[in-house]
Here is the input.
Amino acid sequence: MQGKNAVVTGGARGIGEAIARVLARMGAAVIIWDVLDDQAGATARSIASDFGVKTAGMGVDVTNGESVEKATDRTVAEMGGIDILINNAGITRDGLLIRMKEDDWDKVLAINLKGVWQCTRAVGRVMLKARRGSIVNIASVVGVMGNAGQANYSASKAGVIGLTKTSAKEFASRGVRVNAVAPGYIRTAMTDKLTDEQRKRMQDLIPMGQLGTPGDVADSVAFLASDAARYITGQTINVCGGMVM
Ligand code: NDP
Here is the structure.
């Protein structure tokens, strides 16, 4: 990863921060794009001091095309290019389908799906011109298997898997690979919000019998982002303790 610049969206905390840390440990320079501007800067500084790599933190809203274009230009100007893009920013706004508010549907689709397209479009242009790059999108197993109470979220993540395949097909001939990682039940702030009953129901579905950690997801993302995965594109790896087979 030495000499490579990696952008991680939503990298200020949670799974995104874990991914940024693994990439930095492997020698990449890391640029964190997060809607939380201060937090992006703080996480970037902490990673620089822990791993001795170049880092930057930028306030970026992935739903806003102008914000993404500006961040892309700034990243290229300050770091010299972008080799790796991890589309990780994502949210949940759960509720049963028939009671779901339109705003909750729109917000989740805007961040989780349109945000991935927006960042892929802006950074993809840079990578296509350079004739190299690797993009990893963070989907979810519920995009494959569905989940009661997550109509908006599961639709957005199924969309991410489709978008991954299409961008992989469009970019392959120019040396840019696009893959996805679909995490199962991972312990983070997002899943800490679940009720005990929801948590027990999820845990019973995991053949390996335990929750995953952000590090479990990050290691698979780092593999797909690296040259070790040079002949892999358009694929989704389920990192879920066997929840989906
Ligand atoms: P977190 O909420 O901990 O982290 C998500 C980060 O993205 C936050 O820092 C968040 O900021 C940021 N973000 C939110 N909206 C935007 C935006 N518009 N532009 C830029 N950044 C934004 O979530 P997780 O670490 O748990 O999840 C990371 C990814 O993994 C998501 O895509 C999620 O769907 C996926 N995932 C998680 C699973 C889990 O079990 N945790 C399972 C399957 C998939 P803010 O705090 O302001 O919202």
DSSP finds nine helices and seven strands in the chain.
